[in-house]
Amino acid sequence: MNGFLLKGRAHKFGDDINTDYIIAGKYTKTLNLNDLALHLFEDIDPNFSKKMKGGDLVVAGKNFGCGSSREQAPIAIKESGIAAVLAHSFARIFFRNAINIGLPALVCNTDEIDDGDELEVDLENGLVLNITKDKKIPMEPMPDIMKHILREGGLVPYLKKYGDFVRE
Amino acid sequence: MGGTIVEKIISSHVGEEVKAGDFCVVTVDMLMCHDATGPLTIKAFNEFERENVWDPQRVTFVLDHAAPSPNERVSGLHDMLRSFAKEQGIRFFDVGEGICHQLMLEKGLVLPGDIALGTDSHTCTYGAVGALSFGIGSTDASGVLLTGKLWLKVPYTMKIIVSNSFKPGVYPKDLMLNVIGILKADGADYLCLEFSGSCIDEMSMGGRMTLCNMAIEAGAKGGIVPPDEKTLEWVRCRSSRSFTPQISDKDAYFIDVLHIDAAGLEPQVAFPHAVDNVHPVSEATGIPVQQVFLGTCTNGRLEDLREAASILSGRRVHDDVRLLVCPASRQTLLEAIEEGIISTLLEAGATVIPPGCGPCPGTHLGVPGGGENVISTANRNFKGRMGNNKSNIYLASPATCAASAIEGKIADPRKYLS
């Protein structure tokens, strides 16, 4: 994807991190999207929004983003400045929502990544480099249509450009 | 090889035969948005700078998540949806009409063989009428408003065959909690669940809705019950729109089959803080509860209120318990009043709140206190779900919740059955 390289520190989470944990329902009733970032992961890590820095990466186990269809979940992550989410697997709706708003959601073996590790993510070549551990971790290829939507910056710019879905 | 019900529904909306694993673009029969996710949908749609949505007849807006509005900010979001619906000619259900999923089915807006989408993960409820329905995000929904289409990957189907009948005191909610306990939160990721067997044949439409509603809690894209005579009767008295029911071919490919003996089930309880943390009620009895919630898109229907009322009839809610009752729709509330169910619940000490999502998503009404335990008929018990991350939520059937309200602790409903 245009030689796009991301570099940042890992914030490690476990399995089945649901969308309520990413952003609680009580905070979702707003269109001031940057307010959402203040409460990111609040119920499971109350200091998260204070300790993270722009460009950091969220790293998780399996089924990240399960639960509600609330798009406020990937929006809260993106608005906070987190550059991408890496997980063993994603829940279906979260995965689509993340790509649709232009937040890279990447599937890879996250066992070899610990909290605080420095990572480099090479989106074009589908590779994660764990700089701290000097390990290369391949990413699972993304479906062509999702790659295309992500390359355009999300579904809205994609549909603005093409007016409809195009055959891959 | 033949197709599953899901493959056949999708093929009919693509215009060519597709199989599980294929990527395709489908036409959409119905889109639903509510007050928690609709504003973001409109915001994204406005970025397209188009005047009109693709087909207002195929769009429904519902105010249910924080309704009536608890504050000025939410009132603004409600107004945004109200005005957009009016400008575009979109079907609109205002505050007090009920929960989106209940309305979509009760009003006959989703029919067998349809593809129906909603900006809510429990949109999968409509599988109860043999439709393929699932939740999407707000941006995907804005794409539907623009094009009337959605791209998707055709899911594989897992068949769940439920034989025999429930013993007294055991309900569809117990079955579904049991299934989720077996599959776990990601056991059906990207799959559809097709429910069949003699227990499903006997099951009411409301019970089928409870099953399909919770398919998402095992990660499934959707749950579906093959339409039968009961389904056709349900939709025929609610809609005059034509439809094409689909069922799986005999030689369809299922990725897995799970057999459950309904007669072997006892009441089930999901413990905090995960829906798949499921135990038989015998392991939960005696746990104190301070709030009991009867309602939601899972179990707020007439038959659910009726079950609870039959247990609470002539009895009192425990002094240390608040019992909140939230009928799934205005229609449900009206019928419950006519049947005397509401009187029974009020006389037992219940508080009845307006039809809608109520305390389930933690946005208004009935937020539990710190350290309190809640037993609820809802579908989710994540930490903080009801608005307080220092409370604990247990999930169970309406009957188990009613019995627990009487005792002030989690109780087995079977001893209260007459």
TrEMBL record, chain A:
The keyword Lyase applies. It catalyses: (2R,3S)-3-isopropylmalate = (2S)-2-isopropylmalate. Its EC number is 4.2.1.33. Pfam families: Aconitase_C. Residues 47-104 form the Aconitase A/isopropylmalate dehydratase small subunit swivel domain. Pathway: Amino-acid biosynthesis; L-leucine biosynthesis; L-leucine from 3-methyl-2-oxobutanoate: step 2/4. SUPFAM superfamilies: LeuD/IlvD-like. InterPro entries: Aconitase/3IPM_dehydase_swvl (IPR015928), AconitaseA/IPMdHydase_ssu_swvl (IPR000573), IPMI_Swivel (IPR033940), LeuD (IPR050075), LeuD_type2/HacB/DmdB (IPR011827). Keywords: Amino-acid biosynthesis, Branched-chain amino acid biosynthesis, Leucine biosynthesis, Lyase. Heterodimer of LeuC and LeuD. NCBIfam families: LEUD_arch. Belongs to the LeuD family. LeuD type 2 subfamily. Catalyzes the isomerization between 2-isopropylmalate and 3-isopropylmalate, via the formation of 2-isopropylmaleate. This is 3-isopropylmalate dehydratase small subunit. It comes from Acetomicrobium flavidum.
